[in-house]
Amino acid sequence: MATILEDYIAKHPGSAQRYVEASKLFPGGVTHDTRYAQPFPLYMTHGEGPRKWDVDGNEYVDYVSGHGALLLGHSNPAIAAAVARQISRGTHLGASTDEEIRWANAIRALIPSIEKLRFHSSGTEATLMAMRLARAYTGKDKIIKLQDHFHGWHDYAMAGSDQSTPGIPEANTGTMVVVPSGDLGAVEDVIKRDPNIAAIILEPTGAHFGQLPFDTANYLKGLRDLTAQNGVILIFDEVVTGFRVSPGGSQVRFGVSPDLTTMAKIVAGGLPGGAVGGKADIIDMIAHRNDPDWDNHHRVYHPGTFNGNPLSAVAGATALEMIASEPINANADAMAARLKSGLNDVLGRLEIPGHAHGIASIIHVVLADCDCDRETCTMSHAKIAATNGSAATTAMKRGLQNRGVDIMSRECFLVSSTHTEKEIDHTISAFQEAMTAVRADGLI
Ligand SMILES: Cc1ncc(COP(=O)(O)O)c(C=O)c1O
Predict the structure, then answer these.
(1) Is 261 in the pocket of ligand 1 (CB under 6 A)?
(2) What domains are defined for the chain?
(3) Atom of ligand 1 at shortest distance to CA of 272?
């Protein structure tokens, strides 16, 4: 019988061929680090709803979901129509538009803590601006960040990352204070000890959109109280969780209001886009006051060629208005619940150490046993990280790809509102076959 790797090579000759050329063009042969794969990544041609196709004609049930952007699936007809209409009216009018007002209102309708906002082109820009606003508003320099939490790739966000960080001046990381994730006492110690703390930023369901979770409800509430008492700005990075873990993101699901929220992915309906929003007096650090001293010396400067661009605006507004008025999240959550229970059943049936956990439409698989409630994993972060780095986890991903299922990173299923029982049940069967193949390869 062919190994998983042999099967992967045999099924994807077109991808292998393209990777040879791409390797001459791009470092590592890819255009995003998480797409890097050996012996080669897969090349896709198109997607529709919950499915996508590769250059060899293989069909996949897709759980990468546009790195989390596609809660409404691929090529949603209403979004496609809105974008097509806007393309014929102009992709960049170099001016303010009705579309950006509609987009902002759609965001505010879902996230009550957002009084005002500014648009960006990505989540990285949004977290960079959130940190700068917090520093400007408080007149303090330092930002607390949680270990392993991901906020994009700018110099400040890379502090406390589980990735390498050459090229980042120590002067920048020196303004970041990294604390263990989920430890309220550690945050309190820093705030009490250091009078120069402007803000704390975090992924509100834990690092890597809940791969390394904490006791969310209590931790978020504790952080809210602590920061409010000490004049520290609380920033929720809802780039992935926004509009997914509830229509109003983590903050509405857990009933905790941050001062600032960063958004990207779903916010732009599958097109590039990001935003930072929150308390008006903080966001208004960007506002002109028609006072030369303020405008030239104190105001936070914010240009950006594609800020609020009309294509992203109509895609984002259309997506968010659907999320507000249709059972988009309920559908995705129900399919994710079916999938999570199916994945756990397979692992139990095959007697393979492992479990699937997660909330709403986000599922993480860990190939190690745990007696958690399958929503919030209680295993140590070190153990989860070690298990996710194993050869068995890589083989699981590849084994799924060989059977027409593509997952986010190596262990995450991001479910959309277009996944139906048909796709979920196909996925559960593919998972059973893939895990049987991982065992046959001697990796479990
Ligand atoms: C929580 C979080 N913040 C920020 C970012 C950066 O967003 P972008 O890739 O749009 O720059 C990401 C990207 O995955 C993310 O997951």
Answers:
(1) no
(2) 4-74+327-440 (3.90.1150.10), 77-325 (3.40.640.10)
(3) 10
